[in-house]
């Protein structure tokens, strides 16, 4: 039978500290965890980048470098592993620096015992869950689960910056569910909401993992296509339009490609909106 214990990573340059922490964790009264050890800065960074740990116990001193440097590594910005900072000293402002860097708790090694360690782990895990839920609520549309407009615009602004910096293609689709008012009147507003949810599922299923699908507002959705020019974007839009038809409704789609003449995310969306209007004026259920 496979071991299903949740994994905790200890990053500490002393092997004896790993044995001590393992012995303490064996005395936990609640959930039992599997402890894994990384003895160097580089090993610890590589392990954290895997994203498989529910928590990390991070030593301040790691040879010539320290845990604060590790927490600021760019590659860890998208990793949500909660960190509990460890240090040998109780002086200076190391605790403040650790919290500023993103640590959720701080422990003095000489004061750690099984009860304190278990309490700290439980606290960090619960706090991380709360923070992730708050982040989800702030960035997601509650009905469809897609990115909301403000988060979608933030993502698009980042993609525009990237496209400009690396001279890579980028396209935006603006998708409008046709005759949504008639749908609501025919099957009720609640039924109309279900249609929007199903359309959202189709959109997510039709794009790549690197692309973003956004609830732009009301009956409109935005899709940001990375590394896609106008030709590729139109092909993608046509495929999406056909896929939505299987639900018994249609969509009109406006396509716009970023260029140096459209210097901002707002200008790109203005172009997509104008294209969408063209599709609707031409009779709906089409791409422009």
Task: Explain the layout of strands and helices.
Elements: E1 6-11, H1 15-25, E2 33-38, H2 41-49, E3 55-59, E4 61-62, E5 65-66, H3 67-71, E6 83-87, H4 94-101, E7 105-108, H5 114-139, H6 149-166, E8 170-177, H7 180-187, H8 189-206, E9 212-217, E10 220-226, H9 230-245, E11 251-257, H10 265-281
Helix pairs in contact: 1-5, 7-8, 8-9
CATH level-two architecture of the largest domain: 2-Layer Sandwich
How many separate domains?
2
Average residue pLDDT: 91
CATH fold field value of the largest domain: Alpha-Beta Plaits
Secondary-structure-based class equals alpha/beta
- Let me know the CATH homologous superfamily of the largest domain: Reverse transcriptase/Diguanylate cyclase domain
Strand order of the largest sheet: 2-1-3-6-7
Give me the strand/helix succession.
EHEHEEEHEHEHHEHHEEHEH
What about the largest sheet?
Answer: 5 strands, parallel
């Amino acid at each position: 039978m496979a071991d299903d214990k949740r994994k905790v990573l200890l990053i500490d340059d002393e092997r004896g500290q790993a044995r001590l922490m393992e012995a303490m964790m064996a005395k936990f009264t609640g959930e039992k965890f599997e402890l894994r050890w990384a003895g160097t800065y580089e090993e610890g960074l590589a392990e954290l980048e895997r994203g498989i740990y529910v928590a990390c116990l991070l030593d301040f001193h790691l040879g010539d470098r320290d845990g604060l440097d590790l927490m600021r590594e760019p590659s860890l910005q998208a990793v949500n592993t909660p960190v509990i900072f460890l240090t040998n000293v109780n002086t200076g402002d190391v605790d403040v620096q650790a919290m500023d860097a993103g640590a959720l708790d701080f422990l003095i090694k000489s004061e750690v015992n099984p009860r304190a360690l278990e309490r700290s782990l439980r606290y960090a895990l619960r706090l991380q869950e709360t923070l992730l839920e708050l982040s989800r609520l702030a960035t997601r549309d509650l009905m469809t689960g897609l990115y909301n407009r403000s988060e979608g615009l933030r993502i698009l602004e980042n993609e525009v910056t990237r496209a400009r910096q690396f001279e890579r293609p980028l396209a935006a689709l603006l998708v409008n569910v046709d005759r949504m008012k008639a749908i609501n009147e025919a099957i009720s507003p609640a039924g109309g909401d279900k249609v929007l949810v199903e359309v959202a599922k189709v959109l997510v299923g039709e794009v790549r993992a690197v692309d973003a699908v956004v609830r732009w507002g009301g009956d409109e959705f935005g899709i940001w296509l990375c590394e896609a020019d106008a030709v590729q974007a139109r092909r993608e839009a046509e495929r999406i339009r056909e896929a939505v038809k299987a639900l018994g409704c249609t969509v009109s789609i406006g396509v716009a490609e970023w260029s140096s003449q459209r210097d901002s995310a707002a200008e790109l969306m203005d172009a997509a909106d104008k294209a969408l209007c063209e599709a609707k004026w031409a009779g709906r259920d089409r791409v422009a």
